[in-house]
Known about the structure:
mainly alpha, 15 helices
Amino acid sequence: MKQATFSQSSLEKTANLENSKAKITLISIFNALLCVLFFALPLSESVKQITLYPLIVLGFYIIWRQKLSFKLDMLGIFLIAYAGFFALSALINAQIKYMLDPIRSVTLFLVIYGLGAKNIRLNFVLYCLFGGYLIAFIMASYKVFFAGAELFELKSIGYVNTSAIYSLFILSIFLCAFWWRLASRWLCTASILLSFSGVVLSASRTCIYLLPLLFLLFGFFALNSSKNESKFSWEHLFIIFGVIIALALLAFLLTLLPHERIAYKISLGSGFLSTRLYIFGSAFYTWLEHPFFGIGGAEFLNVDNSIWYPNSPEPHAPHAHNTILHLLSTTGIFSALCYIIFCLFGLVKFFKARKSALGLCALLILVLGNIIGLVELQFHSENLLLTMFIFALACSCFKGQKV
Length: 403
């Protein structure tokens, strides 16, 4: 009898050990795919697509196999509703391919949220994020200063303003990583200097004007964090002052470079609003004509601003240059309302989690992204994937997982 009990116990231990090894192997594969995804994000659209789908399938399989907690709050519910109405609008307007980006990004949010921060090797992801950005930065700089390109555009991300937003988000991430020591301090310092340069070289006025706000918000919340794990030291203070001096020198030197767009765009000040107001008005009137499900993302380029504003200098625009107005005109009232409510719940949730690295990072990205959204469309594919990844990690803090 004792021998039978001993044998049964040994079998159970062996089975548990095998399950544990299988779990570790699957999580390791998932983290490897995640690293490839964020390395390729600014570099290769094809690698991003090839990596993303198996990453999502494997993530859901791990969640199902390990029976991980997957209880969504109101933020997650409205995010899913936003993606659902977005997809419904694309189906109604016969523009199926335009619903893929938000669905992929929301699905990534659900996978990361389900797995939780404890299963994500964030330090490895940060190294890969920096490596991909470094290569994309070098390629864009070479094209601008040696190949005659007029715009500083990261390879896979493309459009110059979208590249500037990506650089601003990278800057926010590595500021928090520096303060909470999520990766090497020197790696974070290099990332901060590099992404700061990317924002300035893009000459996107909105992102450049937001740089002081980013540093003020980060400094206020980080210094007032009573649970700061960085163990502040003189070395810490020295590095911070060194980064501040380096950023000031970079800002001065970059304005001296032979990059005409920088001087031209900054000299315009806020004059761009004179043309954007026509686009805003046209987007609003377009929504009034199609209030429920919009006209679809592909049709906005065909909107003729001169119908409502005969003196408009730009009769057509690729998007509304305002996130809410673009959602209203292209996807309708339901999708736009879900997005607004999602942002409000996110603001409250991330503000409560501001004393953690990921909570503050998500708060910075949410605030800066929506300020940018007043005059630009900030939710492009790569930016949306990066944003959803950070939001999901921050939300996992509320599932009792240490971040």
